[in-house]
Amino acid sequence: WNTKDGRSDHEHQYLYCQAMDSSENTELVKTPREYLAMKNVTPVGPSNVLSMAQLRTLPLGEQVRTLMKNVKVMAFATLMGLLASGTDSTAVLRCIQQVALLVQGTWVMKSDVLYPKNTCSSHSGVPAEVLCRGQDFVMWRFTSERTLMRKEVTAIIKLPPEDVKDFLEQMSVPRLNRGWEFLLATDHDFIRKHPDVAQRQHMLWLGIQSKLEKVFNFSKDDFVAKKDVKQEPMSDSEKPMDTSLTNGSINGYPDFVRSTFRKHYVLCLSEVKRLFNLHLPSLPTGHSVYGHVMDRMLQDTILQSQCKQILVPFPPQSNATADEQKVFGLWESGETFDKVISGSCSLIYVIFSNRLMFTF
């Protein structure tokens, strides 16, 4: 054929393509839709992970159960935010109570849901029934305490350290020199809005507590009594007893407050609490049980230690917490230098008490 003739060359190529096996030419005969489908790469994820779109196709009870199994601890407002808009909160409350228990106003996954029957610990092989009792004990303690010491928990439930660590990691975070602190802040808003649910959960915890006392052979007074001693105000006629240090200072507050304000002069309550937590390791052995900072007692001690509260007029849009808005200053002391400092604090107190405004 004439290679210089364009028509001849075209016919030659056409015949050549016709002669090829059709199975070898499939890429050239696909429709545009099929071609784009080949180019669209579907992301591959873990087989045990559901997208939010997939999750919302499940019944409400399964949605709540799945979310709690993944998060372990959740505030009710957060849970409602993860569910579809317009979901009935009453229905969610019914579902959440089937898979979780209320701890400090937030919801924590039930132990028997977390550790199903006929399963065991991946660390030690301890059966699920025993793990559930240990988990329940940790949860119960967190209903009345912000922080727990791992060593104390292990001594009572007598489970391997790895299992105890698992219990704590699911609902708390480690804090330097303070043990394990509950993961979320107490949700007072939920407790105020749903007093009936809070009361029902309280009754459930009383039943769990009764069972735990028999299993682990302890009395509620071993924990509750100490908590009560911290909260009750002490009159002049009462003796410090177990909560006193060798120098007679209740919980070590007065000496700490006096020395702290002699160094810093003006502090907000949150900063005083932070400094006190740093001060805890220096307290005598055995005193850490009473190391939780009680706001009422600490404020009373500050006001009794030659200090006064300064009424700082924070603007309405301020992001400062309630503790940050409570400002205290040294008022008076015996030494000449301290009188100068306390005099300055007194002036600041008068300025803010009368809401005097200055422009610099």
Automatic annotation (TrEMBL):
GO terms for cellular component: RNA polymerase III complex. Residues 255-340 form the DNA-directed RNA polymerase III subunit RPC5 C-terminal domain. Pfam families: RPC5, RPC5_C. One of its GO terms (biological process) is tRNA transcription by RNA polymerase III. This is Polymerase (RNA) III (DNA directed) polypeptide E. It comes from Cyprinus carpio (Common carp).
